[in-house]
Amino acid sequence: MQAYLKSKKQLWDEALYHPFIKACSDGSIRKSQFEAWLVQDNIYVLEFMRFMAQTLAHAPPEHYSVLISGLSALDSELDWYKEKLAERGLSRDVEVLPGCNTYIKMMQSFADKPYPVQIMAVWAIEYAYSEAWATGAGDPDDFKAPYNEFANRWGSKPFREYVDQLAQKAQEALQGTSKEVRKEAEAVCDKIASYEVDFWQMAFDA
């Protein structure tokens, strides 16, 4: 994973160090920007959970525990999103904005990909969240309230450990695969980094 990330440093830096994250950290993010992100991210997480379930269906048994733990966390996370939206008086029944919709459609297109490609996609998606909130704007503890709650959720040590477990499973899945599959897996990760940028920007432009 490190070799891949090093080779695509500029692409991933754009995803991890976006102005949206930095604005959350220093408290300059506008209410409308953050709420646009929160509502759309709730929609995205629901679709991501479906994708995770499809990935589990293709996974070898020795990968079940990590993926099931991820699904369980996502289930709890959807309840947490419901609470956060209710606190702000936001509806979950909203139009899906283009930046979210295109990302979801891309993720849905992974459903018929080989398992090594799917698990790489899962890792890349979770890695993007972990690293953005953990390092994209400094230490999570430095985020201004109320955004420190979000930084501490995804920038936490337990979440990063989970992402590391996904990286290990992805590496295991890629071993012995063809050059074409490895190339496809990297291409999928490239797309995820690009769509992460678009998702942040979608909210930042709100």
Automatic annotation (TrEMBL):
Coiled-coil zones: none
Residues reported in the UniProt entry to bind substrate: D41, E77, E126
Gene Ontology terms: biological process: thiamine metabolic process
Domain spans labelled Thiaminase-2/PQQC: 6-205
Name listed for the protein in its UniProt record: Thiaminase-2/PQQC domain-containing protein
GO CC term (a single one): cytosol
Domain of life: Eukaryota
A Pfam family per the record: TENA_THI-4
Active-site feature positions: E196 (proton donor)
